[in-house]
């Protein structure tokens, strides 16, 4: 999810820790360079102001999306490697959700980190089809940081509509742990906020409007300004004296 204007080849080169090899395209030559090691390259032009009806197609929520007017591409050339591998996804299933979630998680983490330094992790779980639910774990310094982190998530990715913020001792990748925090650290009349009339995503099948939706924040963090019950734990020195491995052989 590189911002508009960022050189994608530079981003990919940084990820690979070496420059991306480029070659002239079939259609535009050296005016438009393409990755030399790509499995497949489709070159084409998207004409302005041309739209055609598409769909209905299967979409990531596991439902069929509506028919819509969308852009078209005039394909000019296709090239591929010998024995090229074409990787696709099973739309509306786990591989679709995971591939969509990971880049969004990274973008959200970086945005939240700039405002709430104590953020530990951001997760878009499969239970929310990798888009709609967001779990944020933070080491809270002051009350209010949890909602601040939640609002950033809602504003950064319009797919996100339900945010649960938990303390740093809760694993956001373990849904049972997240639900434990909701069960033991939340009072609904104090810790749940509903934001109405917010821009949503048209592929959310629960929406009653094409654009507007309602979003929810659950602050499942412990308060800082008053005492709160301590979670049970076995002291580390005891765990070291009685390692579990000894009893599982």
General description of the model:
By secondary structure, this protein is an alpha+beta fold. The strands form 4 sheets. Strands 7-8-9-11-10 form a 5-stranded mixed β-sheet, sandwiched between helices. Strands 1-2 form a two-stranded antiparallel sheet. It contains 6 helices and 11 strands. The longest helix is centred in the middle third of the chain and has 20 residues, at 94-113.
Termini separation comes to: 46 Å
Helix- and strand-based class? alpha+beta
Radius of gyration: 23 Å
The portion of residues forming beta strands comes to: 25-35%
Main sheet, how many strands, which sense, barrel?
Answer: 5 strands, mixed
Tally of separate helices: 6
Low-confidence stretches: none
Summarize the helix and strand pattern as letters.
HEEEEEEHEEHEHHEEH
The strand order across the widest sheet is: 7-8-9-11-10
Structural key phrases:
249 residues; two-stranded antiparallel ribbon; 6 helices; 11 strands; globular
Briefly, what is this?
The protein is 25% helix and 27% strand. It contains six helices and eleven strands.
Topology of this protein?
Elements lengths: L7 H9 L5 E4 L3 E7 L4 E6 L5 E4 L13 E4 L2 E7 L13 H20 L5 E5 L9 E6 L6 H12 L5 E6 L7 H11 L2 H4 E8 L12 E9 L15 H6 L8
Parallel strand pairs: 8-9, 9-11
Antiparallel strand pairs: 1-2, 3-6, 4-5, 7-8, 10-11
């Amino acid at each position: 999810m590189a911002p508009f204007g960022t050189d994608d080849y530079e981003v990919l080169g940084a990820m690979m820790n070496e420059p991306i090899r480029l070659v002239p395209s079939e259609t535009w030559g050296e005016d438009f360079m393409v990755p030399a090691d790509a499995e497949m390259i489709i070159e084409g032009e998207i004409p302005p102001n041309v739209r055609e009806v598409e769909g209905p197609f299967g979409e990531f929520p596991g439902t069929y999306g509506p028919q819509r007017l969308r852009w078209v591409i005039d394909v000019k050339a296709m090239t591929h490697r010998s024995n090229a591998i074409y990787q696709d996804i099973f739309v509306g299933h786990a591989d679709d959700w995971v591939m969509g979630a990971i880049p969004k998680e990274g973008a959200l983490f970086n945005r939240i980190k700039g405002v709430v330094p104590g953020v530990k992790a951001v997760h878009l779980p499969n239970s929310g089809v990798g888009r709609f639910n967001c779990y944020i774990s933070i080491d809270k310094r002051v009350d209010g940081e949890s909602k601040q982190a939640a609002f950033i998530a809602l504003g950064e990715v319009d797919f996100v509509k339900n945010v649960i913020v938990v303390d740093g001792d809760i694993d956001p990748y373990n849904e049972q742990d997240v639900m434990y925090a909701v069960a033991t650290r939340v009072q609904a009349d104090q810790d749940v906020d509903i934001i109405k009339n917010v821009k949503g995503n048209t592929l959310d099948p629960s929406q009653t409007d094409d654009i507007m939706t309602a979003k929810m924040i659950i602050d499942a963090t412990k308060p800082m300004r008053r005492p709160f019950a301590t979670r049970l734990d076995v002291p580390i020195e005891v765990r070291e004296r009685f390692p579990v491995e000894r009893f599982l052989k």
